[in-house]
Amino acid sequence: MERAPISKVLLVSIVLVVIACVAWAASWVWSAGWQRTDESWVIVQGSGLMELHTTQRRVWIVRGRFEILHDERLSAAIPAGSSAAAPERHGAGLFAQPLEAERVRGWDARSHWSNWNNWRLGDLGWYGTTGGGSTTRVISIPLWLVVNLVSVPCWLHVGSLLRARRRRGRGQCVNCGYRRTELPPDAACPECGSLPGIERSPSRLVGRAQETSS
Predict the structure, then answer these.
(1) CB–CB of 172/189 below 8 Å?
(2) How far apart are alpha carbons 109 and 10 in whole angstroms?
(3) pLDDT digits (tens, 9 = 90+) for 147-161
(4) Residue 174 buriedness (CB in 10 A; 0-12 / 13-18 / 19+)
(5) Could you give the 3-state DSSP secondary structure of residue 54?
(6) How many Å apart are CA 162 and CA 173, to the nearest integer?
(7) Mean pLDDT value across residues 190-209
C-alpha cells in the first residue's frame, strides 16, 4: 500500500516526459500556444492626437523553448476624432502556426545580466526589450530543462532498481541492505521486516547454506 503513491508519481512523470519530448520536437516545425490581444485608443492630452495602444499576452512553445510574453506597443497615431480610427479589438484564443523556413540555432548564444528581473543565459531567462514604440517582457525556459525536471522521478526509480539488483547479488535485503546470507530464503528481514518476495534467491550462498543444513 505504501508503494502506490510512488508508482502514481512515476506514471505521471513518464507521461510528462513523453509530452515534453513531443512538444520539443514539434516546436521546431510549429509554434503553438494561447494568446490574448487588446487594442484601445488613448487621447494624448494637449497634442490633438489619439494613439492606438496594443497589448499582447502570449504563452507558447517555439523553437525548443517555452515562453511567457507580454508586449505593449504603439500601433498608430492619428488626429483626435478622426473617422479613420479603426475599431478596438479584444480577443483571446489558442493558435498554432508553421514556423518560417530559415535555419536557426538550437541554442541562442545571447546572454546578459542587469538585475534579478533582467537577465538571460541563452534560451533561459527573464528579460525585456524596448524599441520602435514597443516594450516586451519575456520569461523563457528551454524545453530540455523541462524534460530533465519532470524526469527526476524516473531517474530515482531507475536508481532504486539498480540498488536493489546490486543488493540481491550481494545477498542483502533490497530495502535496507541487511545481509541475508544466514537467513532462510523466505524469512522476513530482521532489520526492516520486509519479505524477499517471489524473485530469485538473494545469493547463491543461501542455497548452499540450505543444502549444508539439510
Answers:
(1) no
(2) 34
(3) 999 999 888 888 888
(4) buried
(5) strand
(6) 13
(7) 53
Separation CA 37–CA 33 (nearest Å): 13
Average pLDDT for the chain: 81
Question: Residue 182 pLDDT more than 90?
Answer: no
Cβ neighbours, 10 Å, residue 176: 13
Separation between Cα atoms, residue 201 and residue 101, nearest integer Å: 59
Task: Write b or e for each residue in 90-111: b if 16 or more Cβ atoms lie within 10 A of its Cβ, otherwise e.
Answer: eeeeeeeeeeeeeeeeeebeee
User: How many CA atoms are closer than 13 Å to the CA of 94, on its beta-carbon side?
Assistant: 2
Name the burial class of residue 172, with classes exposed (0-12), middle (13-18) and buried (19+) by CB atoms within 10 angstroms of its CB.
buried
**pLDDT, greater one: 13 or 101:** 13
pLDDT at position 206 is 37
> Per-residue DSSP letters for 100-151?
PSS---SS---EEEEETTEEEETTEEEEEEEETTEEEEEEEEEHHHHHHHHT
DSSP-derived secondary structure for 87-103? PP-EEEEEEEEEPPSS-
d(CA 170, CA 165): 9
